[in-house]
Amino acid sequence: ERTLISDDYKNSFDEDIKFILSQKTTKELINALQENQTQVKIYYGESQILFETTLNEVDHPEINLTSRQIEGIYPAYKEIIPSGYKTRLVLDKDAFTKQIKLAGLFAGKINEARLKIENNTLEILSEDFELGENSSTLEAKIEGEPVQISFNYKFILDGLNRVKTKNVIFELQGASGAGVIKAEDLKDYIYVVMPIKK
Q1: DSSP alpha helices (H): ranges in the chain?
Q2: From CA 9, how far away is CA 62, in angstroms rounded?
Q3: Residues 153-165: what's their mean pLDDT?
Q4: Which of 49, 163, 181, 194 is the most exposed place for a label (fewest CB within 10 A)?
Q5: How many helices (H) and strands (E) does the chain have?
Q6: What value does the CA radius of gyration of the chain take, rounded to a whole number of Å?
Q7: By three-state DSSP, how is residue 77 classified?
Q8: What residues are paired with 10 via a beta bridge?
Q9: Residues 68, 47: contact at Cβ < 8 Å?
Q10: Residue 172 burial (10 A CB sphere; 0-12, 13-18, 19+)
Q11: By three-state DSSP, how is residue 153 classified?
Q12: Domains in the chain, please, with CATH?
């Protein structure tokens, strides 16, 4: 898998540089730098890239991570991120996560969780021919049109698990468009999830 990191960091490069890292390297880099507020030195070559931070007290690297770059051009991801919405929900992240996990127990072979949105209520439905049906409701701040749409519940959970804020925003483009998960009050997290089309 390939991962794109996009953030507003200051740099001292004379020109913009672009590179693609593996998902594994990206996760290691995020974990290594999460608690470290020092400057990061980046050594950039044709096929490899080195990230290095130094301890303030001594002159040797505290973190030294080298990675091979992935060749190619990263897809034009901005083109697939919807710029607006037809329906917008603001939900308690933990409550939404709990109900999606519950729906997952009954989601069947294609992991389908159906979302029915109307009257400031989100109803989450799932069905397994052997285990039975599940239905749960959540209150939400809802703007826009009523809609029914299905997603792979695992993909929704993947997006929710990275949100650190209390509330999550879920924007929909109608019954067949992409869903966008955002962290409330944070602009640097966008997760796009495609619906199950029947």
Answers
A1: 23-33, 93-104, 153-160
A2: 20
A3: 94
A4: 194
A5: 3, 14
A6: 20
A7: helix
A8: none
A9: yes
A10: buried
A11: helix
A12: 2-74 (no CATH), 79-193 (3.10.150.10)
The residues near 66 (Cβ < 8 Å, ≥ 6 apart) are 48, 49, 50, 51
Pairwise CA distance, residues 157 & 186, whole Å: 19
Cβ within 8 Å of residue 2, ≥6 positions away: 20, 21, 22, 23, 70, 74
* 66 — pLDDT class (breaks 50, 70, 90): confident
Tokens of 131: 């285990």
pLDDT per position as a tens digit, 55-65: 555 555 566 66
Using CA atoms, how far apart are residues 59 and 57, in angstroms rounded to an integer?
Answer: 7
At 197, the pLDDT band (50, 70, 90 cuts) reads confident
**Rounded-to-integer distance, Cα 119 and Cα 124, Å:** 14
Is the distance from CB of 69 to CB of 88 less than 8 angstroms? no
